[in-house]
Amino acid sequence: MTLDPVVLFFLLGLFAALARSDLKLPPALYETLSVFLLLAIGLKGGVALAKTGSPQVLLQVLLVILLGTLLTLLAFAVLRWRLSRVDAAATAAHYGSVSVVTFAVAASFLARQGIEAEPQLTLFLAVMEMPALVVGVLLARLGDRQQLRWGQLAHEVFLGKSMVLLLGGLVIGWLAGPKGIVSLSPLYIDLFKPVLSLFLLEMGLLTAAKLGSLRRQGSFVVLFGLLVPLGFACIGLGSAYAMGLSAGGALLLATLCASSSYIAAPAAMRIAVPEANPALSLAASLGVTFPFNLLLGIPTYWMLTQWLYA
Amino acid sequence: MTFHAKKLLTIVTEAVLEAPLVKVLQQLGAHGYTVSDARGGGSHGVQGGGWSFEGNIRVDVVCDAAVAEAIAAHCQQAYLPHYGLILYVSDVGVLRADKF
């Protein structure tokens, strides 16, 4: 199957930065595009939930929160093998958390093949960001409890930009319903993919900038960034199967598990665990795992999904 | 024209520190401050400012010597161990002493 054109935009950004082109998007545009993507994903999920939501979703949300916690602990256990406790904890928080853009690319992958997924996956996306950040900080702070500022952490976790926009979009979409959203859909629904392509161009530029610092972090970080997503995707697939999700939903949950945060987690960890080396987590998350998921991961998880659901 | 002697305290640090730093400035007696986005390089490498959390900020505060010292002491104790932070003080003259 040919690559999704939005992924080609990512490759273009990667190429431009590696070839030292002067291409650079203004930071204000990057901020604007991320606000748009978060709102659009939230709205779409909210509308779908209004159409088909069932009370079973609440139970699934609890399971997904447990899943996020479990993945963070697993990542910590693996990382602790080579890294200091604070570095392992901060990096584990990145891997237990999720990447909205990777989710969007997986959703676009499904849409291109005309496969539907359950609407609650958007809700899973929103809730899976939280537990990892809390667990990551707890792991880093084991033993010295007086240093932990709960209020600040809670504020960071529940009122961070991505949470407010995703959940806000979900609620607006849910309240508006399929009819109410019609007047908004030219911007938020129809323009989603073009905007995603621009965002991925920027992601290509940023990823290339991280490749340089990756060389300094060593092979353990690279191996971790490649193998852990595969393992986590399998855990996600198994959980989706056990929860009774469709194949499309299973791919999205596997992608959520495999993806790692590079926006919310770095910002939260920098404030809550300042001793950790931010370059290390970001090099793994943005330099290895993000491009891996985009280029090879999602198609591989889909093959695994088809095999499991056959 | 008479100018009143004050201190100009400039802090260049990571953008994630903006909110906590601004809070501390006010608590320690600064009457005002100016924050601007900053780019540059140094011992922590080049700060491109491509990400909101990777960028740098530059905070300027005009205040009394005592306030400047209190802020510098706080920065040294709370932020210097783990964050990239540059701080310097210079003598300036201001038109309206009561503003600072």
What does this structure look like?
Chain A: It comes from Vogesella margarita. Chain A: Keywords: Membrane, Transmembrane, Transmembrane helix. Chain A: InterPro entries: Sbt_1. Chain A: This is Sodium-dependent bicarbonate transport family permease. Chain B: This is Transcriptional regulator. Chain B: Pfam families: P-II. The complex is a heterodimer of chains A (310) and B (100). By secondary structure, chain A is mainly α. In chain A, α2 packs across α11. The model of chain A has no long low-confidence stretch (mean pLDDT 90). With 100 residues, chain B is an alpha+beta fold. Chain B starts with a strand and ends in a 6-residue tail after the last strand. Chains A and B meet through α2, α11 and α14 of A and loops of B.
Relevant terms:
heterodimer; A: 310 residues; mainly alpha; globular; B: 100 residues; alpha+beta; two-stranded antiparallel ribbon; 6 strands; 24% helix; 40% strand; Sbt_1 (chain A)
Task: Write out the strand line-up for the largest beta sheet of chain B, numbering strands in chain order.
Answer: 2-5-1-6
Number of strands of chain A: 0
Total number of helical segments of chain A?
15
Oligomerization category of the chains in this entry = heterodimer
What would you call the structural class of chain A? mainly alpha
Which two chains form the greatest contact, residue counts included? A-B, 13 and 14 residues
Over the alpha carbons, how many angstroms does the gyration radius of chain A reach? 18 Å
The residue-averaged pLDDT of chain A reads: 90
Helix content estimate of chain B? 10-25%
InterPro entries (chain A): Sbt_1
Keywords (chain A): Membrane, Transmembrane, Transmembrane helix
Protein name (chain A): Sodium-dependent bicarbonate transport family permease
Pfam families (chain A): Sbt_1
